[in-house]
Design brief:
This protein has two domains: 94 residues, no CATH class; 122 residues, Protein of unknown function DUF881 (Alpha-Beta Plaits, 2-Layer Sandwich). Helices cover 46% and strands 19% of the residues. The protein has a five-stranded antiparallel beta sheet with strand order 3-2-7-1-8. A three-stranded antiparallel beta sheet has the order 4-5-6, covered by helices on one side. A hairpin with a 2-residue loop joins strand 2 and strand 3. Helix 1 packs antiparallel against helix 2. It is extended and about 70 Å long. It starts with a helix and ends in a 21-residue tail after the last strand.
């Protein structure tokens, strides 16, 4: 385990060296010969890029120092950094939406309208569509919701929600009304936002769509169940051209 800790120290030293090299580069910028406007602009751009790099390195150093402190504390208390690494792994899974979580928030129940549809009325206005659910989800996100589920399905940035007649399809799973949306966040803020005048729910209720909103001190939301499939995106390595 001490070997693992040494690696982190070496990594921190490498970042510090990069920091000092960046400072050196900044101090060594000179312009031989006649200084033109284009050269001045290029120099200014170089300085700005180096300053951004220095700030990023400072941030990385601070984050690594905090992690090293955690590892050192874990090592001194239990002789192992395994617990600290597992906590970090769980935190990453929490942020990715893969873990079952709990917290305060609101529960929204949506049902189709029970109004009689007139001959001249458009029946589509009296049932819930995918766009209706999406609009409510977007308003919850804008209000600071930290986690959202619909009928037990965890909603991520890659989640697909589309219409299938009287049902909606979430990541390939078919769901009928009622649509129960759970959102974890500040209950008062979420409720105020979702029930504000001219909110999307306000518009839905005008057509008779039934919506019930209630605050809850404890909501449980399951982790994302389907496998994450990312075919095209890839990480950018440090130093790689953006």
């Amino acid at each position: 385990m001490k070997k693992g800790l040494s690696i982190y120290y070496l990594f921190t030293i490498a970042i510090l060296l990069g920091f000092f090299l960046s400072i050196q580069l900044k101090s060594d910028i000179t312009s031989p010969g006649i200084i033109t406007i284009s050269k001045l602009l290029a120099m200014e751009n170089d300085v700005e890029n180096i300053e951004v790099e220095v700030n990023n390195l400072k941030k990385s150093i601070t984050e690594l120092k905090l992690k090293l402190n955690d590892y050192e504390k874990s090592l001194s208390e239990s002789g192992s950094i395994y617990d600290s690494m597992m906590e970090e792994w769980k935190r990453i899974r929490d942020l990715a939406g893969l873990e079952r979580i709990t917290g305060p928030g609101i529960i929204i129940t949506m049902n189709d309208s029970k109004k009689d549809v007139g001959v001249a009325d458009n029946p589509d206005l009296y049932i819930i569509h995918d766009i209706d659910v999406l609009e409510v989800v977007n308003e919850l996100r804008a209000a600071g919701a930290e986690a959202i589920s619909i009928n037990g399905e965890r909603i991520l940035g890659t989640t697909s929600i589309k219409c299938g007649g009287p049902i909606i399809i979430i990541d390939g799973q078919r769901h009928a009304t009622p649509f129960i949306i759970r959102a974890i966040g500040n209950p008062k803020v979420l409720e105020a936002s979702i029930l504000a005048p001219d909110s999307y729910i306000d518009l839905l209720e005008y057509t008779g769509i039934e919506v019930d909103v209630r605050k809850a001190e404890r909501i449980v939301i399951d982790g994302y169940k389907a496998p994450l499939k990312l075919k095209y995106q890839k990480s950018i390595e440090e130093g790689e051209n953006k």
